[in-house]
UniProtKB/TrEMBL annotation:
Protein name: MEST protein
Domain AB hydrolase-1 per the UniProt entry, residue ranges: 62-150
GO terms of biological process kind: acylglycerol catabolic process
Similarity comment text for this entry: Belongs to the AB hydrolase superfamily.
Taxonomy of the source species: Eukaryota, Metazoa, Chordata, Craniata, Vertebrata
Gene label: Mest
GO MF term (any one): monoacylglycerol lipase activity
Keyword DNA-binding: no
Length: 166
């Protein structure tokens, strides 16, 4: 029994190889619908998924939703309709490495890059100079803090709102 680790390794390698070659699970109808109602934009040769819905008539307010860890923009699916009744535009993205966005390996993921991607999305949508409301949770809170650091109150040159939602 001195070579138990060798026997374990000989058994483990084929199981690992089998696991790595299994196809990913099928998406639920809700996730398929979420994906089909979104789009992709390119940030430094990386595909970033986002959803952008027009909503309330008469409002000019835009809200950008920043999701948590380890999830995706789908975090906001249950309140999406309610937000579109309040805001003119409701926008959510999947951070790099999450949801339907690319997941490059190896890659040095950082909060600074995620914030730059949000800014890139706002440029892509022609909203870089608009007043933006941020709604975030968990991991998205840290990205929101970086965005606010880049555009500090009271000047908010990039148009980011600092309102807190309870």
């Amino acid at each position: 029994m001195k070579e138990w680790w060798l026997q374990l390794g000989l058994l483990g390698v084929p199981l690992l190889a089998l696991y790595l070659h299994l196809p990913p699970p099928q998406l639920s109808p809700a996730l398929l619908s979420w994906k089909s109602s979104g789009s992709f934009f390119t940030y430094k040769d990386l595909n970033i998924f986002y959803r952008d819905s027009s909503g309330a008539v008469g409002s000019s307010e835009v809200v950008v939703l920043l999701h948590g860890f380890p999830t995706s923009s789908y975090d906001w699916s249950k309140i999406w309709e309610g937000l579109t009744q309040r805001f003119h535009r409701v926008i959510a993205l999947d951070f790099l490495g999450f949801g339907f966005s690319d997941k490059p390996r190896p890659h040095g993921y950082s909060i600074f890059e995620q914030a730059a991607i949000v800014e890139g999305l706002l440029r892509h949508l022609g909203l870089r100079q608009h007043r933006i409301n941020l709604l975030s949770h968990d991991y998205g809170d840290t990205v929101a803090q970086e965005l606010l650091h880049r555009c500090p109150p009271p000047l908010l040159p990039c148009g980011t709102s600092t309102e807190m939602v309870p």
